[in-house]
């Protein structure tokens, strides 16, 4: 049946179908006629739809429906290829794994424009039913959210379907905050030179990968500084040297005791300035699981402690520094670009501080100023820090 254009219609075309319903077509910005995504009961309904479409085009809000027909599989592959140069190798591998193992099998063949929040909610529920951890589910959702947000930003779809979706809660786990004396016991219990590596976690706040990546050139024994500008990560079984997490390079001052012992260790290292401080007996870069089993866990056990991870030492360092010198100083030493990260994940109340506050507040309430206590400040605190290998 031929298309009919009424004199009052100056945009698009409408025709009656054999079914009795009406089909509308409109010219996109490129002049190509495109059909409406549905048919209409009356010409009035079709005209009303065409009017809205015309306004959408004139306002610059029009999206080519063909773009929305791109599958999640194709768009996620294109997105990952585009963002990979800005990602760390470990992050690239993690994103690729999540896309291939969790996103594509469930949603890869779906068109971008067909996805709705209910489909994402069902996907999250299916992962939960399979017994995936809350962490893994949330990681997969975050990657899909980035893929879909990119589709919106590139005018593929009008809005992301990743909205209003309830995710499983992460279990609340608190780091094991050690006292400086407990950390010192772990250091003294470790085999050499891994005692120095553990000391750098506890008394400089390094990440394990940052300590693994330290080289001779990074230690300024004369000035008492450590330069943290590299990280050793494992991705898909391969070791990769990269910049520190969040790309936060930093120069840290360390205590004289640790500097002296590091200087002595440097004298035993073979090779050039690029020589790694800590390696396997064969001279290879360290791998986390092997190092922890061979050196760290035995040191923790020998120190009479349990449930201590290498990351706990970093968290302990952050807590000690934040308690004594403020969150901003702790954030610098931990390599955080935002102090809120330090507060949220690392700085924890130090045992006994609440009792001290209660005693002080009693003095405030009664109107008495304990001048002696005020003069002594933290000097009256007995937290065992005097037994630490390197004071913060």
* Class from helix and strand fractions: mainly alpha
**Which whole number gives the mean pLDDT?**
83
From the spread of the alpha carbons, the general shape counts as elongated
Number of helices: 16
The run of helices and strands is EEEHHHHHHHHHEEEEEHHHHHHH
Strand elements, count: 8
Largest sheet: 3 strands, antiparallel
The whole-angstrom Rg is 31 Å
CA(first)-CA(last) distance: 85 Å
Percent helix range: 40-55%
Order of strands, main sheet, comes to 1-2-3
Estimate the strand proportion. 5-15%
Instruction: Flag low-confidence runs.
Output: 1-7, 369-392
Write the SSE topology.
Blueprint lengths: L12 E4 L5 E6 L5 E3 L7 H16 L6 H4 L3 H12 L5 H19 L9 H13 L4 H20 L26 H10 L4 H11 L3 H5 L6 E2 L4 E4 L2 E5 L2 E5 L7 E4 L2 H11 L21 H15 L7 H16 L1 H8 L4 H7 L7 H14 L4 H6 L16
Antiparallel strand pairs: 1-2, 2-3, 4-5, 5-8, 6-7
Helix pairs in contact: 3-4, 3-6, 4-6, 7-8, 7-11, 8-12, 12-13, 13-14
Structure description:
By secondary structure, the chain is mostly helical. The protein has 16 helices and eight strands. It has helices spanning 43-58, 65-68, 72-83, 89-107, 117-129, 134-153, 180-189, 194-204, 208-212, 256-266, 288-302, 310-325, 327-334, 339-345, 353-366, 371-376; strands at residues 13-16, 22-27, 33-35, 219-220, 225-228, 231-235, 238-242, 250-253. Strand 2 and strand 3 (33-35) form a beta hairpin. The chain is elongated. Residues 1-7 and 369-392 have low confidence and may be disordered.
């Amino acid at each position: 049946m031929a298309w009919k254009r009424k004199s009052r219609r100056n945009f698009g075309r409408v025709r009656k179908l054999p079914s009795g319903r009406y089909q509308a077509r409109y010219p996109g910005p490129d002049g190509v006629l495109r059909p409406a995504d549905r048919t209409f009961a009356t010409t009035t309904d079709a005209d009303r739809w065409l009017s809205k479409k015309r306004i959408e085009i004139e306002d610059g809000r029009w999206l080519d429906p063909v773009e929305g027909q791109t599958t999640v599989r194709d768009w996620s592959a294109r997105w990952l290829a585009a963002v990979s140069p800005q990602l760390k190798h470990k992050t690239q591998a993690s994103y690729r794994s999540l896309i291939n193992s969790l996103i594509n099998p469930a949603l890869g063949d779906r068109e971008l424009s067909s996805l709705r929040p209910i489909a994402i909610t069902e996907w999250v529920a299916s992962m939960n039913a399979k017994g995936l951890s809350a962490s893994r589910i949330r990681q997969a959702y975050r990657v899909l959210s980035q893929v879909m947000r990119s589709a919106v930003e590139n005018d593929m779809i009008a809005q992301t379907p990743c909205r209003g979706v309830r995710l499983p809660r992460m279990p609340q786990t608190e780091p094991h905050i050690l006292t400086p004396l407990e950390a010192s016991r772990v250091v003294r219990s470790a085999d050499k030179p891994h005692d120095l590596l553990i000391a750098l976690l506890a008394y400089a706040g390094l990440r394990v990968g940052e300590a693994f990546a330290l080289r001779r050139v990074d230690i300024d024994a004369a000035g008492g500084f450590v330069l943290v500008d590299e990280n050793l990560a494992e991705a898909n079984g391969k070791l990769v040297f990269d910049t520190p997490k969040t790309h936060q390079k930093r120069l840290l001052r360390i205590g004289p005791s640790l500097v002296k012992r590091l200087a002595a260790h440097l004298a035993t290292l073979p090779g050039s300035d690029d020589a790694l401080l800590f390696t396997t007996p064969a001279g290879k870069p360290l791998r986390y699981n092997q190092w922890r089993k061979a050196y760290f866990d035995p040191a923790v056990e020998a120190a009479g402690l349990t449930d201590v991870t290498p990351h706990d030492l970093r968290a302990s360092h952050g807590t000690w520094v934040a308690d004594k010198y403020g969150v901003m100083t702790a954030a610098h030493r931990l390599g955080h670009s935002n102090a809120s990260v330090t507060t949220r994940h690392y700085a924890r109340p130090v045992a006994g501080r609440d009792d001290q506050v209660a005693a002080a507040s009693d003095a405030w309430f009664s109107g008495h100023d304990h001048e002696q206590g005020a003069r002594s400040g933290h000097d009256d605190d007995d937290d065992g820090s005097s037994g630490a290998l390197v004071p913060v």
